[in-house]
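Sanity check

After download, print the first record. It should look like this:
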Amino acid sequence: MNESNLFPYKVMYGHAYVPDQKLRKVFSPEDALKNGTLFPELVSMYNPGQSMEVIEFLRESRGEFR
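Expected C-alpha cells:
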C-alpha cells in the first residue's frame, strides 16, 4: 500500500479499513469538553433532521429504503 492510495487494492468483505491518522492539533481540555472531542478534525456541524433528509433522498433514488 502506498501513500497515494489509502485503501488496499483487494479488500475482504466484512473487514474495516481505516486510514492512518496523523495527530496535528488538539483542543485545550476546556474546548475538548465543549466540543465532545479532543481532535478538531472530528468536529462537524449537526443540522436537526439531517438524517431524515438522507433517508428521503435514498428512498427517491433507489426505491424503498429498508
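If your output differs, re-run the checksum step. Summary of this record's structure: The CA atoms of residues 53 and 59 lie 10 Å apart.
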